[in-house]
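User: Hey, quick favor. My workstation is busy. Could you predict this chain's structure for me?
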Amino acid sequence: MKRNLIIEGDAAHVLNTLPEGCVDLVITDPPYLVNYQDRLGSKLKNDDNPEGVLPVFAPMARAMTQDSYAICFAGWSALPQFTAAWEAAGLRIVSQIIWQKRYASRRGFTQYRHESAYVLAKGNPARPKQPVPSVMEWVYSGNRAHPTEKAVEILAPLVRCFSKAGDLVCDPFSGSGSTSVAAALNGRDYLGIDIDPKHVATAQARLAGVARYQAGRVAA
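Assistant: No problem, here it is.
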């Protein structure tokens, strides 16, 4: 069984190699299908290609344990495509989480001042004993390691809320590895998957740093 690894490869393919029902929690931030480009011109692989993103959800759901959760970030513009893929995979939306930003990340018909994620359920998981708020304050990562990097500080509460110590937390769109870092720092195992070798190397380096930090604390 693959645990505590960051794997380079197509997420759908890698997930299909996992035993069915082995993942206890998914937290992931897939491309929003908006052909995103940051101020430096950096782009996201498959952000203009639904076939590189949406087919991941069926094998993701297969790999999840029965009665478990997936937290999936998504933007509003492609939400119909995402919801259709989630429903086809047997995942239903049970809640939404909004992070409020103090700045506008983009301006269009409105100023975009939030990020959102959807809480998806496979089967009928138990409700968290201490649910996170549905609206929280955003923590900006600086996007230093990835064009849409999420801060560990916003992911760690999700790890603690929707999983328990020793569980396997999977991120099939791993990026710079923030989900895996949040899992490792909170006593969970992790499995990250990304198709971009540059981001895989970044994530592996970050997790190696976490391992050194934890080893140092034990030694002390």
